[in-house]
Amino acid sequence: MTATLATATDAPRRRLSLSWLGVVPFVLFSLMFLLLPAANLVIGAFQDPTGAFTLANIANLFQPSIIRSYTISLQISAASAFGGMLFGFLLALAAILGHLPRWVRPTLMTFSGVASQFAGVPLAFAFLATLGRTGLVTALLMNIFGINIYRSGFNLLSFWGLTLVYLYFQIPLMVLVISPAVDGLKKEWREAASTLGATSAQYWRMVALPVLWPSMLGAFLLLFANAFGAIATAYALTGSSLNIVTILLYAQIRGDVLHDPNLGYALALGMILITGLSNGAYIWLTSRSARWTR
């Protein structure tokens, strides 16, 4: 009888230990390609070329050129995150609550899943071929309507040009992130508001938007972190003409002129802090909004 009880007690333990095998690849992947490289960056930020401890790299982050690069990156990230949040939210509302044909939502979600991952050199080339100085849309506007967007002040290789390019993957990502929250709006809430005499505008202002606000703010922070860490698209599109922090980081670590790896590690440390805070706030806001939309 004692042996039987011991066997029954040990069985759940064995099942529990075996269930952890499923997350071993994820843990190893995170350790090898995320945690260890991040730890190496943090250590390198406090070392000089000889490996001795120093705070000079952190102090050099306050150079005017580096502060300017962080400022431009923060501004582009905030602008593209706000635009992505706004238009993505409206798209999700139209597809989920807009009484559109049933095929619209799965088509939008499929496209969003693909477009949210479309970046780098292909995205930069697509926009250059579309809105570049000799792009298709640029030529059509000039030949049909006589509008020269570049003579009017538009420039794809600028702050607003790069923000526009970022919107291509920011809007689909917002659709994917906010759709579960929009699905969580209960029909009973709208029916109760209508029964009490609330108009549609009052329902959205007093019920729906307050419920969705934590999810929207969390999505904004996620989009902000997504844009802040992007480099391939910006580098392929603008080269070094737009001094954002990711391009400056690349120049410090791999460049021939601004080669200072330890300063690059310090730049990366600042980026880790900013994106880490953004993602941490996103997780907290998501857990907070989940209590309302269950």
TrEMBL record:
Gene3D superfamilies: MetI-like. The keyword Zinc-finger does not apply. The keyword Hydrolase does not apply. Residues 70-284 form the ABC transmembrane type-1 domain. Pfam families: BPD_transp_1. It is found in: Cell membrane. It comes from the Bacteria. InterPro entries: MetI-like, MetI-like_sf. Keywords: Cell membrane, Membrane, Transmembrane, Transmembrane helix, Transport. PROSITE patterns: ABC_TM1 (PS50928). It is a multi-pass membrane protein. The chain crosses the membrane at residues 20-43, 79-100, 120-145, 157-182, 202-225, 232-253, 265-285. Belongs to the binding-protein-dependent transport system permease family. CysTW subfamily. This is Spermidine/putrescine transport system permease protein. It comes from Kaistia geumhonensis. The lineage of its organism: Bacteria, Pseudomonadati, Pseudomonadota, Alphaproteobacteria, Hyphomicrobiales.
